[in-house]
Structure formats: structure tokens, C-alpha cells
Write a structure and sequence with these properties.
Layout (H helix, E strand, L loop, with lengths): L4 E5 L5 E6 L17 H8 L3 H7 L11 E2 L7 E2 L2 E9 L3 H14 L4 E3 L2 E4 L10 E4 L4 E3 L4 E11 L5 E3 L5 H10 L10 E2 L1 E4 L3 E4 L13 H7 L6 H20 L5 H4 L2 H10 L4
Parallel strand pairs: 5-10
Antiparallel strand pairs: 1-2, 1-12, 3-14, 4-5, 5-13, 6-9, 7-8, 10-11, 13-14
Helix pairs in contact: 1-5, 3-6, 6-8
């Protein structure tokens, strides 16, 4: 089981504690987020369908398969199934997870306002190149996505500021479904709830293969399904896409009937 960042959840609606299972951060450095360069943005939001299909569910044993709760009441907002995600800007596991979330959700809608980010420089898997959702907006005719950056970057003391507060409903979801995968705490980041039916709790894959690579290099690799990093990112992305298809009634068919998504749905034992 890959590592994750543990949370202490307080029922009044504020998450106030954090601990790391892999290392202790002492000092951080502020990274100024910037708009994602146009070339990189296109590569992460327009991954070739052939790459998704060739990757399928990736290499066995390298991706933590999400859990399915088929009998749960569907989570909705704005009249559509909802995807709720919880992240932290300092978090290396969140840094890796965002690559899969962006490539997946871009098959169903459009991101705007994405900015660059990197994980904490003094931590396990330091400076993992990624993006952040704090200023991002997502629109889709099929689903609603609420992607919450709970924690910001490291302070000089190594602590992590709470930069957004989840609602009472969101805290309830975290307490109910964020099982603390990989930790003994009461929850983890990254965490994402896909309609209350498919739950990703903790890191989907180890960030180590992303170490030392630029954001441009990672993005450019996504067209090559033979690349080991692509297998991790797009394999996870196919599971996420199958989750969307499972909760939105199989729309759009062009995505939900693609071989990569069907392979992930078969692994999850769900119908899309």
C-alpha cells in the first residue's frame, strides 16, 4: 500500500490536524503557482484515446484499485452526479494523483484556471511536479466536480495552513468514506468520492517514478502508452473514467464504451 497523508477530522466542519506516515517535514519553501503553459495544458487535457485504450488498467500491482459501494445513495449537486476530492498543495501523493484526475475529468468536461504547483521540497518525493485546484473551475454536462485544496504549502515551520474549509456535508463524506488507507489515522489525502459509489482513499500509485522530471516531460509522455509513468497515470485515469461512467449513466458513449474504460469497469465489476 502506498503511503498517504493522514488527517484528523473534527465533526464541526474543520479539519485541523495532519500527520505524515513516511517522513517529517521541517522547513518548506513557497512555490509561486503560475498559469499552466498552453502546450502542457493541451497535452494533459487532450490525451489520445489510443493511449488510454492501450494502457487499460496499467501494470498489475502498481495501482491501488478503488473501492466500490454500489448500494450507496448517489451523491449529486446541481442536478448531476458529483465528484468530491480533497488534496493539499504540499502533499506529494496529491501531486501524483492530480495528473490522473485532470486527464480523466477532461474526457467529460473542461478545466479553466489550472495553475502549476509542486509538492514540498523537504519531504518524501520532494518537488513532485503537478498542478493545483485552488483557482480551477470545471464544467461538464455530465457531472459536477468539487476539488478542494484543503491545505496550502509548507510554512517555514513545516506546518500546513488550512486554506479552504469543507462544508458539514463534505466532512460527513470524509468521515464516512475516507477509510485511512495506508495510515492508522481517521482519513487521508488524496481522497476522492465519485458519486458515493467509487472511493479513492489514499494514493493510487507511488509518486517515485515522477521524481526529477519536469512537468513538461511528464505531460509529453502521456501520448506514449509504453512509458511506465503513462501506465500509472492513465491506468488510474481509466479507473476514474469508469467511475464517472458508472455514476452518470454511461455518458458520453464515446468514452464509456472505449476499451480502456471498459477494462477498468470490468476490474471494478461495475456496468458502464
Amino acid at each position: 500500500m502506498w503511503g498517504a497523508i493522514g488527517l484528523v477530522v473534527v465533526i464541526v466542519g474543520v479539519i485541523v490536524g495532519v500527520s505524515q506516515t513516511s517522513s517529517t517535514t521541517t522547513k518548506g519553501a513557497y512555490y509561486p503557482p503560475r498559469p499552466v503553459p498552453a502546450t502542457v495544458l493541451r497535452e494533459i487535457t487532450h490525451v489520445p484515446v489510443s493511449a488510454f485504450n492501450a494502457v487499460g488498467t496499467g501494470i498489475p500491482g502498481t495501482i491501488n484499485v478503488p473501492t466500490v459501494h454500489s448500494s450507496n445513495k448517489l451523491l449529486t449537486s446541481d442536478g448531476k452526479p458529483e465528484v468530491f476530492g480533497l488534496f493539499g498543495e504540499f502533499c506529494p501523493y496529491c501531486a501524483a494523483e492530480r495528473w490522473a484526475i485532470i486527464t480523466s475529468l477532461s474526457r467529460f468536461g473542461t478545466f479553466s484556471g489550472l495553475r502549476t504547483m509542486q509538492s514540498a521540497p523537504v519531504d518524501v518525493y520532494p518537488r513532485t511536479q503537478t498542478f493545483e485546484f485552488n483557482t480551477a473551475k470545471y464544467t461538464s454536462p455530465y457531472i459536477t466536480a468539487k476539488l478542494l485544496e484543503l491545505y496550502g504549502q509548507d510554512k517555514p515551520t513545516g506546518s500546513h495552513s488550512v486554506i479552504n474549509t469543507p462544508t458539514k456535508q463534505e466532512v460527513a463524506l470524509i468521515k464516512k468514506f475516507d477509510s485511512g488507507s495506508g495510515t492508522t489515522r481517521s482519513g487521508t489525502i488524496p481522497f476522492s468520492d465519485w458519486g458515493n459509489r467509487v472511493i479513492f482513499s489514499g494514493a493510487s500509485f507511488n509518486p517515485n517514478p515522477l521524481q526529477g522530471l519536469s512537468r513538461t516531460t511528464i505531460a509529453a509522455s502521456l501520448h506514449d502508452p509504453r512509458n511506465p509513468i503513462t501506465k500509472l497515470i492513465l491506468g488510474t485515469s481509466n479507473y476514474m473514467s469508469a467511475a464517472v461512467c458508472y455514476i452518470d449513466g454511461g455518458k458520453p458513449a464515446s468514452v464509456c464504451t472505449s476499451p480502456g474504460v471498459e477494462a477498468a469497469a470490468k476490474a471494478l465489476k461495475v456496468s458502464v
